[in-house]
Specification:
Helices cover about 5% and strands about 50% of the residues. It has about 850 residues and is mainly β.
Length: about 850
């Protein structure tokens, strides 16, 4: 395995040898994003560290002192001055990411008398962003990766695709052969390809579920005006519920302040080699409308991504639409916070969030028409394949002694797919009718075109009540989804049916409800040991119905099916326990053991007219994960190490089910591996190294209809949608002071993903007997990839030019950041996600690649 391309040595060496003054001071322009109320100094500093993403270290006796708190919007230096007021302590920044608290002078006593130390000091309360809603959780062990808003800006992260590319152990991919790449997949710890999505997605702790088992265009929020994006690795079934067997991704937005005005404006321009320019602009602002009573926050954002794949005439190779895969995304969010009783914990927060995404055409290219190494990327589809997706989320949260969250989510998506190739497979297959053989593997004229129009409508209502005390969290939740998928297929004449034109349609509506009760308790049992336990009991029901249009179309073509299942339903009760044991030897050093269960309830695959299929029900699956982890700190907070070793075992039910787009292979599987992350502030540098290893495979040979469909030891997944065994992320930052109020930062980042060698079940030679045939040896996992990105940022702190706008005082300056970046420095163009439609017959392959080398300029104004 190699983590860096040989050519990467020069840019890295240039960064290493840059000379400048030592790092000193807080990050330029950074401000406190939350109000910290008066409390013990230890708890206040923990809250400061969690809200800023910084490492904070203080002497043990500081836990006995009281802090007056600090309000949101203050610079980090002023926030620390407020928190330490009257304690006799001061602070320094050894690096931009760490703070050390110490007495004002050697031997000086704190201004506040120090109480007598208790006989046994209690373990400090660890403030983390919990797996559901921000709350104070006592000593909770969890494998959590946090990308703060500042870190995402520094790394140039725009959303879940970048999170997947730069978080080892996490992958984000899509079906390259279906339309505009909207059938997506998120893989955490290799848990994939069972019943579809095994990773939950949440925005402001509101679930954003997939619309079907293979995640039709999953709603994925942008990264603008977020406090953080958090990746929870490992099953989260106890607190988050279903479809989190691999883990969960939480998008955490910034919230209104009742005491201070804050905001930002962002603009970006970038040019892509051999492609079109990209543009981005966004603005967010918030603060008190009535101080301490009513606050607001509003944001608006838009991004236009330039295309770099041409749509060409497959017969003449002439360009029909240059750089056709351009897309545009937008979001608007408005939120209020009302505190009816001053100085109390009661707050009522209504919010609404709207997101839209429009893609002009597919980002995939035809391999036989393209040469990625030479920068030639061409799609030979017979028609344009646009995608239009939009959703809004409304929520009402009431936070007091009882935390209540009510949300309503509505989504609509429209997709056009060139299915000219997909309707070419033959005959009945033992599970019902397969696809129909209509013509050659490659189209010979535009008259061969077959078009599938897809419309999705999805509505979700959720309600959760939660009560949290120091040791116990418990509550109830209700969740209801109503999904409708509608398909209409039109196209060329069908020789098999005497030249009749293809015109078929159907729709499937699925209603699913979940009612659950849950509890999680954590209790100290010895001085350094804490035992935790959790349990979720959930009742799940689904009801799916297919309209009769599909049967009408089948009859039209003379295809008779006895008693087709136009309706499918089911219900089950699921229990998801969790056990933890935590050993905490010091303020930051923790070791933990964790056993937890994840699950996905039973459901149905929507019927597709392209395949002339009926509803296909699949059983539920469950997963048990066992994990040993440690969170360690060294050199007074200048170095941290997080590591975990895990094994996940799960079962996908007793029988095989499949349709055109997804196959649910039964039987047990296992995923084993480890995650390692080290961050060190080495003098004037900040170094980060993250490594993950995952081995996910089936553990038993499975047969169906008299033939072997998977062998024990086969790698999990259907290539190319499989996990990379080895992921490595290395980054190096160099920050230095250029003058009063002026700082610069240079950053280099390299991401490596290894090739998965298999073997895969698609390589099993099938005997000529009735039954499903998955033999497709040409489908392989992606090759090993390496991506190098460089970024330089200049930060200036100066008096705010518009103090009336933000109501800022002279001692609270604004910050201006200007960044220049190069992504994909070496213009790597590997062939990725290579696949076809109708794997056992077609040799027309679709694929994608990295966005070509991109040079950009970004500016941020914060006040």
């Amino acid at each position: 395995m190699r983590a860096f391309l040989p050519g990467a040595a020069l840019p890295w060496a240039l960064v290493w040898v840059l000379a400048a003054a030592p790092v000193a001071g807080a990050p330029a322009g950074a401000t406190l994003s939350i109000d910290i109320p008066p409390q013990s100094l230890g708890a206040a500093l923990e809250a400061f560290g969690e809200s800023t993403g910084m490492s904070v270290h203080w002497p043990p006796d500081a836990d006995t002192l009281q802090s007056p708190g600090a309000r949101a919007g203050l610079s980090l230096e002023k926030a620390l001055q407020q928190l330490l007021r009257g304690t006799g302590l001061t602070f320094e920044f050894p690096t931009e990411r760490s703070v050390r608290i110490h007495p004002q002078s050697q031997g000086a006593a704190p201004a506040t008398p120090e109480p007598a130390a208790p006989a046994e000091a209690a373990l400090p309360e660890i403030v983390i962003t919990s797996p559901r809603w921000e709350e104070r959780v006592v000593r909770t062990p969890i494998d959590l990766v946090v990308w703060t808003g500042e870190e995402m800006e520094v790394a140039g992260i725009k959303g879940i695709a970048d999170i997947g590319a730069r978080t080892p152990g996490v992958a984000f991919d899509f079906f390259s052969s279906v339309g505009s790449g909207v059938y997506t997949n998120i893989i955490v710890r290799g848990v994939t390809d069972r019943h579809g999505s095994a990773t939950g997605v949440f925005f402001d702790d509101i679930p954003l579920p997939s619309a079907r088992s293979n995640t039709f265009g999953r709603a994925l929020p942008p990264s603008f005006d977020l406090r953080s994006i958090e990746v929870l690795r490992g099953p989260q079934g106890t607190l988050l519920g279903a479809d989190t067997q691999g883990g969960a991704v939480r998008f955490v937005p910034n919230q209104p302040s009742l005491t201070a005005y804050t905001g930002q404006a962002y603009a970006e321009w970038a040019t892509t080699q051999r492609g079109e320019p990209s543009y981005e602009a966004g603005a967010a602002a918030g603060g008190p409308l009535v101080r301490d009573v009513l606050g607001f926050r509003f944001s608006a954002w838009q991004r236009s991504e330039g295309g770099y794949v041409n749509r060409v005439d497959p017969f003449t190779h002439a360009i029909v639409d240059g750089n056709a895969n351009r897309d545009t995304s937008e979001s608007v969010r408005a939120v209020l916070t009302y505190a009816p009783v001053p100085d109390s914990s009661l707050a009522i927060t209504p919010s609404v969030n709207y997101v839209s995404s429009r893609a002009r055409d597919s980002p995939s290219f035809f391999t036989y028409l393209s040469d990625p190494g030479a920068g030639s990327l061409n799609n030979g589809s017979l028609l344009r394949q646009p995608f239009d997706d939009r959703y809004y989320v409304g929520s009402l949260r009431a936070l007091g002694q009882l935390d209540s969250r009510t949300s309503s989510y509505h989504r609509a998506g429209d997709l056009v797919v060139d299915d000219t190739e997909s309707v070419k497979w033959g005959g009945p297959n033992g599970l019902g009718w397969g696809n129909l053989l209509l013509g050659p593997a490659y189209p010979v004229s535009y008259g061969n075109a077959v078009t599938t129009y897809t419309a999705l409508h999805q509505s979700v209502f959720s309600q959760e009540l939660r009560l949290t005390t120091r040791d116990l969290t418990w509550g109830v939740s209700y969740y209801r989804t109503h999904d409708t998928e509608r398909y209409h297929v039109v196209g060329a004449s069908i020789p098999l049916f005497n030249g009749a034109p293809l015109d078929a349609s159907n729709a499937t509506t699925t209603v699913q409800t979940r009612l659950a009760g849950f509890a999680e308790i954590s209790k100290k049992i010895f001085r350094h040991f804490t035992l935790g336990a959790g349990l979720r009991v959930e009742r799940e029901k689904y009801d799916a119905a297919e309209d009769e249009s599909a049967q009408t179309e089948l009859a039209r073509y003379g295809i008779a099916q006895p008693s087709p299942p136009l309706h499918a339903d089911g219900q089950e009760t699921i229990v998801a326990p969790k056990l933890t044991l935590l050993y905490q030897s010091g303020r930051h050093d923790r070791y933990y053991l964790l056993a937890a269960k994840g699950y996905a309830p039973a459901g149905v695959d929507a019927a597709l007219p392209t395949c002339f299929e009926d509803l296909s029900a699949y059983p539920g699956d469950s997963l048990w994960s066992y994990e040993l982890g440690a969170n360690l700190w060294f050199r007074e907070g200048r170095m941290s190490v997080d590591t975990s070793v895990f094994e996940a075992r799960w079962n996908n039910g007793p029988r095989l089910t499949s349709n055109c787009l997804v196959t649910h292979i039964p039987g047990p599987a296992v995923s084993r591996g480890f995650n390692f992350k080290a961050i060190e502030a080495a003098g004037q540098f900040l170094l980060r190294l993250e490594v993950s290893y995952t081995d996910a495979h089936y553990t038993a040979t499975q047969s169906a209809n008299g033939r072997v469909i998977v062998n024990a030891g086969d790698a999990l997944g259907t290539p190319p949608l499989v996990a990379s065994p080895w992921d490595v992320l290395a980054s190096l930052e160099r920050s230095f002071t250029l003058g009063v109020g002026v700082q610069a930062m240079l950053r280099a980042e390299d991401a490596f993903h290894s090739h998965n060698p298999g073997p895969f079940y698609t390589a099993i030679v099938q005997p000529p007997v009735s039954g499903p045939n998955f033999y497709a040896p040409a489908l392989r996992a992606d090759p090993a990839t390496n991506l190098l990105n460089l970024r330089a940022t200049l930060s200036v702190r100066a008096p705010n030019p518009l103090p009336a706008l933000c109501r800022c005082s002279a001692d609270e300056p604004a910050s201006f950041d200007l960044a220049v970046y190069i992504n994909n420095v070496f213009d790597a163009q590997p062939t990725l996600l290579k696949r076809n439609k109708g794997a056992d017959v077609s040799t027309l392959y679709y694929a994608t690649t990295f966005r070509p080398r991109t040079l950009g300029l970004a500016g941020t104004w914060r006040f």
